[in-house]
Task: structure prediction
Amino acid sequence: MPELCEILDVSINDLFSGEIVDMKNNEKVLEEHLLEMTRLKEEKDRQLLNLEWVIGFTSSITFITLIFIASYLQMQDYIRIILIVIGFITFIFGMINALKIEQVAGYYECSECHHKYVPTYKSVFIAMHMGRTRYLKCPKCNKKSWNKKVLTK
Ligand SMILES: [Zn+2]
Result:
């Protein structure tokens, strides 16, 4: 069989397949698909993080505005209470959703071993933070450090 392959100038793989299998081209196409998928995920994560900002900003402004109205304008007390409750609910609902987006969009990078990972919602929720940089425990090296939010893996 190897001699036959040599005469025909094909590989054994081609002989069994009954056609010339272009492996190099296959790998290239696969690689291009992977790159495209990575690019799309990055783009989607970027849009999600923008949305997080919009949700955070809108719910904070709503909260502050309602508390301000309830504090300074003339109205009956039960209306004040309703406004404050609505303000709180909007704020808490907004923050829960904004945090969910921050947890799933992109990755956190360990500043010790540079491992990139998606942490659990609970660990993000309880972590200290400065903007999107959070004090988290890396699942790879188990060290606690300030982990930056990154979009590429
Ligand atoms: Zn680490």
User: Anything to note?
Assistant: The pocket of zinc ion is lined by residues 110, 112-113, 115, 138, 140-141, 143 (CB under 6 Å). Helices lie at 2-8, 12-17, 23-72, 77-104, 121-126. The longest strand covers residues 144-150. Residues 107-153 form one domain.
